[in-house]
Amino acid sequence: MAAPHPSSHATLNPPPEPPAVSAAMARAHQKYWRFNLALIAALMTVGFLVSFVLPLMAPALAQVRIGGFRLPFYFGAQGAILIYLALILVYIVLMQRADRRLQRAFVADAGAVVGIAGTDGGAGVPTTRGN
């Protein structure tokens, strides 16, 4: 049996080109991802401090007592877990805000493009001309 004929499927059906992105949207995406990376770095730093640095400082904090228990007990028993949950909640809240900011930038960019084109094409996107 003969070897199969090499197919040029990729050239017959090239992948679709991504839509053009305006400079304003490119800046909004860049700002979004920089914020995301900075937020992750900050939250991971706090997590590192809670996981590794705070236990190393426990002997120095052993003299402080709350309700009859030493302060390192609270860090180990409840504090670290509560801080991790707080980090997750902070990430969720701040990323929802960043998502809304990016969505507003997208709508504003789409509105600017529609405003230039002169019609919304039934897309329901608000234009900058005050429709």
Automatic annotation (TrEMBL):
Keywords: Membrane, Transmembrane, Transmembrane helix. It comes from the Bacteria. This is Predicted membrane protein. Residues 29-102 form the Sodium symporter small subunit domain. The chain crosses the membrane at residues 35-61, 73-94. InterPro entries: Na_symporter_ssu. It comes from Paraburkholderia xenovorans (strain LB400). The keyword Membrane applies. The keyword Transmembrane applies.
